[in-house]
């Protein structure tokens, strides 16, 4: 999906953020010549550059003093100031003024940043009590970057009772020129597509243009956490909504986090990769077997049964090509005996019909008026990865095999708790204090896959917790004793891209590889990784030399190690404890071995120095420039490990030629050898019947 640039007047900006043109065209299906995203902006004149620098300088001067302050208020609210300085500095440093009109917002941006800085220096923060359009910021745990988000605070917010404060999260559409500066301009001048009565609306930046995947997904969670800290929001009255690319984000956040929202309202966009690219992009896909498996991360169709307890209202324009997203979800839901409510704007292309909007708002208000139980008595969870292990009081702790469906269905009744599973080896239940809907006297019977187990009674605070694990075919009460044996578990299950959904650190080699080709590739890919993390996920990657890594770094960060066992001392230190490793002049992965003078090893594994965090060898996020052209392409491209032939230069799709690749098993050990050219037919994507 491609959108008009974000430098027009107010109304145009709203349309830009939420309306797509029909297609990217055949040129964006060519992998050999990929256009740059975001494009380079205009060349500023010396006078224009000096003007921006002059506007930025006073804010930077105030920030120096504020960062030295020990005031809790200053520390808490500093990101609210820093977002303005970052927007100006990045636009200047990275050539992201995309039109001369972009410069018109500089004085307003600088004035607001400076006013906030000066107020905060006096211990004041008037913007925190402001209604209407308010821009806020938070510091991301991923990379310590400050990230902006917009709020729409209703005028009567101070009078709304805390338990009635509803929050709608609205995800924006695709905007290839949606820099921080343009986002701030939009969020300080436009209410946006929605503004329900008595409702706070949160507009995440989403770390630019990624359909709220990966770091964009974490941005939603982190900005929502920040908003809940800043404003009185009822956690049971949060809705997930969006249109176009934002509709795609709303679909994936709905199916992956169904217990976070009282309702979901995705509009247009896409909901899976293969059929959308065929219909919208006219693209012929030829995925490797592991790519097809990894589509299941963000293909919402295979997760659709998770909507059983989440009221969902889809919207499409009748003649919008992106109606495909809801149509294919409707098919997937029908297969699971769910009937999607799909509101269709009559004779409408890529926009929200006014009558449809009224109907959607009325239905959401009706849903919000019915309190959601503190603990749902009936639950269903489908997952393909322990990245998404939980819904309400049920949590999957172990799977029989990743990227093969695991399910849990739970029912609480007077007779106890019934749980039925498939593909699951370890699970836990947890009812928070005051939420266990079970009679508080006597033992609690749990019927787990028709096997009866008995728990001690509900505690006096009405909480209940228990863990179970599968021993052969028998469920046992308690947590599995794994000793020192590794197991894939929530937050530590791969694949490579998972390392960039939590705090990470790029670790540069202080030495040089003895192989010239490997050294050249390493330096080039590291430089690219640093540049593209900023360009695509809008943060400055934290970088250290291997000799500078501290015990604190090992304790709190995933270490992204670049180089090989001869150039990076940390790779050398852990090499013998990895199932894929360097051995003399060879890279060895079970039956697969390749000469190390012209190959690179890419992998993710629990850090042998701290198994609660990852180490990654020689990779940032695995989709590349070609995927930037269409958000449906932005999916994981590599599994848990791969060997790259460096005699094929890196390109817009791959970092070289992938000659070996596979997942690790559930114990983080090598799986049986599998040829990279073999097929994977277990996952058969759906297709919308064409008229």
Automatic annotation (TrEMBL):
InterPro entries associated with the record: AB_hydrolase_fold, Plant_Biomass_Hydrol_Est
Keyword Metal-binding: no
Top-level division of the source organism's lineage: Bacteria
Keyword Signal part of the UniProt annotation: yes
SUPFAM superfamilies named in the record: alpha/beta-Hydrolases (SSF53474)
Residues making up the signal peptide according to the UniProt record: 1-23
Keywords assigned by UniProt, alphabetized: Signal
PANTHER family referenced in this protein's UniProt entry, alphabetically: BLL1128 PROTEIN, UNNAMED PRODUCT-RELATED
Protein name: Peptidase S9 prolyl oligopeptidase catalytic domain-containing protein
């Amino acid at each position: 999906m491609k959108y008009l640039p974000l430098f027009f007047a107010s109304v145009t900006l709203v349309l830009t953020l939420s309306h797509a043109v029909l297609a990217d065209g055949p040129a964006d299906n060519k992998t050999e010549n990929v256009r740059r995203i975001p494009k380079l902006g205009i060349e500023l004149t010396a006078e224009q550059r000096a003007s921006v620098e002059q506007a930025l300088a006073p804010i930077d001067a105030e920030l120096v003093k504020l960062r030295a302050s020990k005031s809790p208020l200053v520390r808490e609210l500093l990101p609210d100031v820093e977002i303005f300085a970052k927007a100006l500095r990045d636009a200047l440093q990275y050539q992201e003024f995309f039109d001369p009109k972009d410069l018109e917002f500089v004085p307003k941006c600088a004035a607001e940043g400076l006013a906030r800085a000066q107020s905060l220096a006096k211990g004041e923060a008037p913007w925190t009590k402001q209604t209407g359009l308010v821009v806020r910021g938070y510091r991301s745990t991923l990379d310590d970057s400050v990230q902006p988000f917009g709020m729409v605070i209703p005028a009567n917010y101070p009078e709304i009772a805390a338990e009635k404060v509803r929050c709608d999260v609205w995800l924006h559409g695709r905007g290839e020129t949606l820099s921080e500066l343009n986002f701030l301009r939009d969020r300080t001048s436009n209410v946006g597509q929605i503004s329900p009565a008595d409702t706070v609306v949160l507009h995440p930046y989403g770390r630019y243009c990624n359909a709220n995947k990966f770091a964009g997904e974490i941005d939603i969670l982190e900005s929502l956490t920040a908003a809940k800290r800043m404003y009185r929001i009822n956690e049971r009255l949060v809705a997930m909504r969006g249109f176009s690319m934002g509709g795609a984000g709303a679909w994936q956040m709905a199916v992956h986090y169904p217990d976070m929202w009282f309702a979901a309202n995705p509009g247009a966009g896409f909901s899976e990769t293969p059929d959308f690219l065929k219909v919208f992009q006219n693209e012929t896909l030829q995925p490797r077997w592991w790519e097809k498996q990894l589509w299941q991360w963000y293909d919402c169709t295979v997760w659709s049964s998770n909507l059983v307890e989440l009221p969902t209202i889809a919207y499409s324009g009748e003649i919008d090509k992106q109606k495909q997203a809801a149509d294919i979800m409707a098919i997937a839901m029908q297969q699971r005996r769910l009937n999607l409510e799909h509101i269709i704007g009559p004779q409408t292309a890529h926009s929200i019909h006014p009558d449809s909007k009224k109907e959607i708002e009325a239905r959401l208000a009706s849903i919000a008026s019915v309190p959601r139980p503190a603990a749902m008595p009936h639950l269903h969870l489908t997952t393909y990865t322990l990245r998404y292990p939980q819904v309400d009081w049920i949590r999957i702790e172990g799977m029989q095999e990743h990227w093969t469906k695991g399910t849990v269905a739970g029912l609480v009744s007077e007779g106890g708790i019934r749980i039925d599973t498939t593909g699951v080896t370890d699970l836990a239940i947890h009812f928070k204090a005051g939420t266990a809907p079970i009679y508080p006297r006597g033992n609690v019977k749990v019927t787990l896959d028709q096997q009866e187990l008995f728990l001690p009674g509900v505690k006096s605070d009405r909480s209940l917790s228990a863990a179970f694990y599968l021993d052969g075919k028998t469920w046992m009460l308690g947590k599995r004793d794994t000793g020192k044996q590794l197991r894939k578990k929530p937050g530590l299950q791969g694949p490579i891209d998972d390392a960039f959904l939590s705090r990470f650190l790029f670790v540069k080699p202080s030495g040089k590889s003895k192989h010239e080709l490997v050294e050249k590739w390493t330096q080039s890919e590291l430089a690219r990784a640093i540049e593209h993390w900023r360009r695509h996920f809008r943060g400055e990657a934290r970088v250290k030399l291997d000799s500078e890594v501290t015990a604190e770094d090992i304790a709190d960060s995933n270490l992204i190690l670049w180089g090989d066992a001869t150039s990076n001392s940390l790779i050398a230190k852990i090499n013998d404890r990895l199932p894929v490793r360097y051995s003399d002049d060879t890279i060895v992965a079970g039956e697969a071995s390749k000469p190390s003078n012209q190959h690179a090893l890419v992998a993710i594994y629990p850090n042998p120095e701290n198994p609660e965090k990852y180490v990654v060898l020689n990779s940032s996020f695995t989709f590349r420039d070609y995927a930037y052209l269409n958000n449906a392409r932005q999916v994981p491209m590599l599994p848990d490990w791969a060997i790259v032939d460096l005699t094929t230069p890196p390109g817009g799709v791959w970092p070289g030629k992938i000659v070996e690749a596979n997942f690790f098993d559930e114990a983080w050990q090598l799986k049986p050898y599998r040829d990279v050219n073999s097929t994977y037919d277990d996952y058969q994507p759906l297709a919308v019947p064409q008229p």
